[in-house]
Amino acid sequence: MSLSRRNFVIATSVAAGGSMVLSACSSGGGGGNSTSNGAGTHTYTGHVTVGTAQDSQGPAPEIQGAVKGGNINGLSPSDFSHLDPQRIYFAWNSALALLYVRCLTGYKIAPDGSQKLVGDLATDTGTMSNGGKTWTFTLKDGLKWEDGSDLTVEDVRHGIERGFASFTTEGAQYLQTALTGSADFRSVYKGPYDGKHLEGVVIDSAKKTITFNLKTAQPQLNFILAMHSYGAVPVKHDTKEKYDKDPVSCGPYKLAAHAPDKSLKMARNPHWDPKTDPIRNAYPDSFSFEFGVESLPESDRLIADSGNDQYTIMAYNGVPAERIQKVLTTPALKQRTINGLLTGLYYYAINCKRITDPKVRQALNYAWPLEQIRRIYGGPSAGDYATSVLSPDILGYAHQDVFGKLKKPQGDTAKAKALLKEAGKLGQTIVYTYPQGRESAYEKTKIVIANALKEAGFNPVIKPVDSTSYYDQVQQINNQFDVMWFGWSPDWPSGYSVIQPLFDGATIANGSNNVSQLNVPWINQAIKQNALITDPAKAGDAWAALDEKIMTQEAPIIPETFQRRFYLHGSKVGGALFDPNFSAFVLYKLYVKA
Amino acid sequence: MIRFLIRRTLGAAVILLIISAITFFLFYVAPRDPARVACGKVCTPQTLNLVRHNLGIADPIPVQYWHWLEGIFVGRDYSSFGHCSAPCLGYSFQSQTPVLSLILDRFPTTIGLSIGAAVVFVIFGVGTGMIAAVKQGKALDKIASSASLIGSSLQIYIVGIIAMYYLSDQWHLVTRPNDHAGFTQDPAAWFGGLLLPWLVLAIIFTANYTRMTRSQLVETLSEDYVRTARAKGLSRRTVFFRFAWRGAMAPIVTIFGIDLGTLLGGAIITEQTFGLHGIGALSIKAVRDNDLPMLLGVILVAAAAIVVFNIIVDAIYAVIDPRVRLA
């Protein structure tokens, strides 16, 4: 579910390259600053809940007017980097994986954009006991692989165990760490290839159950298991490293052809039973993808909407700035767009090791010129002003605005100056950095940022870093930057998945995502406590409260925008829906219009 | 001639060796870690070490370079993917394919694009230049000169996008550029798919050839030996083609050799603009992915193309200009 490092760079180019996304169709997500001039073809609520066993039963609700058959074509500048589920982490790869990989749990997305966590391979979202240290799932009946053989509980376990193998370094590590109690989990277990099984995973083939006995409690394991890194892999057909080229499907489509970096084709898997699947619809007979198409020619093709392009979607890149106005002002084109809010956040990390006084960090928050920055990105279409760490898509989100950014999005430099004076830090130098060379927008935002900082009594020093090494440099603990452009997309839509990686002092190291290097005992303690709350709704409330407390007392980051995405599709494509988790079309809900 | 070729080939091998070494060592100078790509979102030191081992970049840099060189001559064994037989240019872990097979897979597109465009721009460029030279100072000359000036100031990524938008998407006059069909599978589809890139490349390259042919011919036509030939009573046509044209062609062949070599090394912007999958697109991917084996492979191909075409140009010189003798 994550955009992860590389994808975040790509995602950045999508969001910051200008008006990549239509203005405001967040209708109840609580973004607080959305307008009502809706755009695109769907409204969006961004509501996350945990579903019941009933919700986990297939088939997925029919889409009115949808018909079976035809081919949907996707255009993208680059190929999927991995097809092996255990090596999938990027959102882009997950968007495709939904067609052929199934996990114990998954997200059922409603037409209004709200999401429910449901059992996918499992009959429900699992049974937790022992304070979150034990989880049990039961497999559904009728699950098959693409060759017609049964998908067994051994296959589910095999997928989990492959996550320990030496070649699956790209995938998620949450479950491995929880099962072994160690971040160095490969020293405890080396994967299933020497015939040994993982101690903490117990299966009962007759009852079709799989039980996880964790060393550390993880009340959100059912969310974690929805990540494709924990997808099932058939024991009999596991080809280790080569599986990445030729994965075996248990979803509605299977890999039919793949010319790396050129094209990929998915064809119907006849052994997939829709009755087992509450999530996927699978109307088209096939999907084809064409790689190497840059965003501008891609948009032009979709705007022209001729021939086969009528059945085509933007598979990954959004509409580029050069074509936004045309699309927005042409009703026929606007009809063919989708727009949505992601679970992620763009922000500026304040280096708390260098800027030690919380008052100075609060002053930075007051001074930051959100309005001017967003105008450079393309206005409201680029995203909603972020006034909290957690986005409206996160379970338990509660609107808050500690620094009054909605009232004064242009920045309150007077208040910032007063705070700075109070702290005795007038004239404080702020070394600001951003990735240079990928997006021209940052060359403009640095100017409005520097102006605002000067006006608030700071002494801004701009030190850009080449985009190719940006993350490597700002994630060094001894870096010489005070404020660093950054972004985060959580691995599942919960407060834990945002606050723990960004603010847990225990994670501070070179390469850590706690770029602020925030290490405050009460926050570390609160993260530990919240992580143990077993009731999802209560946990959601606790994370939202912690978000507000962190921002009020420590202000370790300057939230900027909750990202929006804006995609175009051909006139014969129906069922277009935005996936907030993977920032793409929900492929399995698309259909070819008659 | 043979001695010349042997000497230049050996020289070329040394140049390629130096280029590969520079690329190899420069790659590691950049403050980025190729292992991070495969290390996941939460990258622990243990995982990073494991990835380095998997990618074969745990050894000291000179040792890695030695292994790479060794692979070219005797092949290499990879623990996870088996044997890569000589000449092994390495294994691209990002694409999970041997580098050489990817390059060979992409080369037909690049060859088709380069040769086709070269045919168009040489015929049009040299032809227009000749007409301009003959009609020196007249309206035709002025039109040709101005058109070439405009052409040479255009950029592929602008003309290409506009041409695709109007000619393919709006007016449907030409097929949208693609490389779906190979020359041997479906020559008509192959031709259609590459027509627009050829024409756009030609608009930009033609300009150089027009201007150069014109100025060379104008200069040669005023040379003493041409005037002598005319004075001896040879026809205008004979003087033009046998004396003036031949003399004027030498510098054009030089430029053509370098242009073709560069195109064969990967027309990066052209391939990117038209969404073609040639060596140029491969180089961009290699840089994006921090994929050293792939980067080395494409740089070597690009360098080899330029070096080889330089040798060919030098050899052709001797044929078209009798004053040049190769030793």
TrEMBL record, chain A:
Keywords: Signal. Coiled coil: none annotated. Residues 116-507 form the Solute-binding protein family domain. One of its GO terms (cellular component) is periplasmic space. One of its GO terms (biological process) is peptide transport. Residues 1-24 form the signal peptide. The keyword Signal applies. This is ABC transporter. It comes from the Bacteria. GO terms for molecular function: peptide transmembrane transporter activity. The keyword rRNA-binding does not apply. PANTHER family: ABC TRANSPORTER SUBSTRATE-BINDING PROTEIN, PERIPLASMIC BINDING COMPONENT OF ABC TRANSPORTER.
TrEMBL record, chain B:
The keyword Transmembrane helix applies. The chain crosses the membrane at residues 12-30, 111-134, 146-168, 188-207, 243-269, 295-320. Keywords: Cell membrane, Membrane, Transmembrane, Transmembrane helix, Transport. Coiled coil: none annotated. It comes from Streptomyces monashensis. GO terms for biological process: transmembrane transport. This is ABC transporter permease. One of its GO terms (cellular component) is plasma membrane. It is a multi-pass membrane protein. Residues 107-317 form the ABC transmembrane type-1 domain. Belongs to the binding-protein-dependent transport system permease family. It is found in: Cell membrane. Its main location: membrane.
